[in-house]
């Protein structure tokens, strides 16, 4: 079996981002199964607000290439107004079927409060529209300000959930693709 490559995309631009810290723990879970890993920190890429007439703007080619190299992709976002972050949405808009079709995707969300489910649901819908295969296991980290101490999890159950997401990204990296979804058949924009 070939070594899997797992890429995580951090949808938070904060310097002390809990999303970034959690994604690194998920990537550590993937590395436990001998996967190579790559954390895409959107702060380090120049990605102007997406314009379909300028699909190759800034570092979009680098973003797409790094995602295309992945056997599995982890998407992580803080919950903003009941959904996922604008930087992650913008990055996903630069991508399409070439990056995500038949790719295994894992989802992670963090929240200052106790409710992160809609963020995960919205990301799941986007992935379905790109005909990605989304891992059933997902990682939600509520009340995130109290979940870490010096970059390590305080709650071992949440740590286990996050590291399991990384392991599942490796275990399901080569899953047989499902038939096209109705959403992906109607997603003309992802093919532009």
UniProtKB/TrEMBL annotation:
Residues 6-143 form the NADPH-dependent FMN reductase-like domain. InterPro entries: Flavoprotein-like_sf, FMN_Rdtase-like_dom, NAD(P)H-dep_reductase. Pfam families: FMN_red (PF03358). One of its GO terms (cellular component) is cytosol. It comes from the Archaea. GO terms for molecular function: FMN binding; oxidoreductase activity. Its cofactor is [4Fe-4S] cluster. PANTHER family: CHROMATE REDUCTASE, NAD(P)H-DEPENDENT FMN REDUCTASE LOT6. Belongs to the SsuE family. Isf subfamily. This is NAD(P)H-dependent oxidoreductase. It comes from Halocatena salina.
């Amino acid at each position: 079996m070939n070594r899997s490559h797992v890429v995580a995309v951090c949808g938070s631009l904060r310097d002390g981002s809990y999303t970034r810290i959690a994604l690194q723990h998920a990537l550590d879970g993937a590395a436990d199964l001998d996967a190579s890993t790559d954390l895409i920190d959107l702060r380090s890429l120049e990605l102007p607000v997406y314009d379909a007439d300028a699909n190759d703007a800034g570092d979009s080619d680098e973003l797409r290439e790094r995602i295309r190299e992945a056997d599995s992709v982890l998407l992580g976002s803080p919950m903003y107004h009941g959904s996922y972050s604008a930087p992650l949405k913008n990055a996903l808009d630069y991508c399409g079927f070439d990056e995500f079709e038949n790719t295994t995707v894992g989802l992670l969300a963090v929240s200052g409060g106790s409710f992160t489910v809609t963020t995960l649901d919205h990301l799941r819908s986007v992935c379905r529209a790109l005909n990605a295969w989304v891992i059933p296991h997902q990682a939600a980290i509520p009340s995130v300000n109290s979940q870490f101490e010096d970059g390590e999890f305080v709650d071992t159950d949440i740590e286990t959930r996050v590291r399991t997401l990384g392991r599942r990204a490796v275990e399901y990296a080569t899953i047989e693709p499902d038939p096209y979804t109705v959403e992906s058949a109607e997603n003309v924009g992802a093919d532009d």
